[in-house]
Design brief:
Length: 197
C-alpha cells in the first residue's frame, strides 16, 4: 500500500510540529526565463532568448536550457501542460531554468542534511533527556529513488547517501572520539560496534 503525502497535506493534518525554511542562492541565474507560448495538444512551444523550441510528451526540457535536469513534459492538452514534477503551465507562464538544476537540488539537500545533524547533535547531547529529530524530504520521483537498480553515480539516492555520510562524520566526529574513549564503543554510519579495552 502506498500513501501519497505532500508537504502541504502533512502540515495541514498537523503531522508537522514546525517548519524551518531555508533558501538557496541560485548560481548562474541571469534572469533568463523559459516561456510557454503555445499548446496544440501534441506539441508545446517554448521561447528562450527569442529562440523557439517545440517539445512533445516525454521530452526533456534540457533541450531548451542546459541547466535543467530530469524535468520533462508529462501531459498536455490545448490549454494546460503538466511537467514531470507536477507543475502545471498555461500559455504565457514562465519558469526559471536554474530552479531545476542538479546544483540547486544538491545545495538544498546538503543544507537540509547539515541543519538536521546540527539539531540532532544539540538534542542528543543536552541534559534532561535526548530527543531524535525527524527531517522529511518530499520528492516527486519515489520509484526512481527506491529502485535498487538505480545505482547511477548521479542518482538522487546515491547523492543523498553520500551527503548524509559526509555531513554525519563532519558534525559527529568529535562525539565519537569522546564516546569511544569514555564508554568503550563507537558508531560507524548508524552501525554500533563494541570495542573491548
Amino acid at each position: 500500500m502506498l500513501y501519497r503525502l505532500s508537504a502541504i497535506d502533512a502540515f495541514n493534518d498537523d503531522l508537522v510540529k514546525g517548519i524551518r525554511a531555508f533558501t538557496e542562492q541560485i548560481d548562474g541565474d541571469n534572469g533568463e526565463r523559459i516561456k510557454l507560448i503555445d499548446l496544440d495538444g501534441k506539441e508545446a512551444t517554448f521561447i528562450l532568448d527569442k529562440q523557439e523550441f517545440k517539445l512533445s510528451k516525454g521530452e526533456n526540457l534540457n533541450r531548451i536550457h542546459q541547466a535543467i535536469s530530469d524535468l520533462f513534459v508529462s501531459e498536455m492538452n490545448k490549454s494546460v501542460l503538466v511537467l514531470s514534477n507536477g507543475i502545471e503551465l498555461k500559455k504565457g507562464d514562465t519558469i526559471n531554468p536554474y530552479s531545476y538544476s542538479d546544483t540547486v537540488r544538491d545545495k538544498m539537500m546538503r543544507q537540509a542534511i547539515r541543519e538536521h545533524f546540527i539539531l540532532e547533535k544539540q538534542l542528543l547531547t543536552r541534559n534532561g533527556g535526548r530527543i531524535k529529530p525527524l527531517t522529511l524530504f518530499f520528492i516527486d520521483d519515489i520509484a526512481g529513488y527506491r529502485d535498487e537498480k538505480n545505482q547511477l553515480s548521479g542518482s538522487l539516492k546515491t547523492v543523498f547517501e553520500q551527503m548524509v555520510k559526509a555531513e554525519f562524520w563532519i558534525l559527529f566526529l568529535d562525539l565519537f572520539f569522546i564516546t569511544f574513549k569514555c564508554h568503550g564503543c563507537g558508531i560507524f554510519v548508524g552501525v554500533i560496534f563494541a570495542h573491548s579495552e
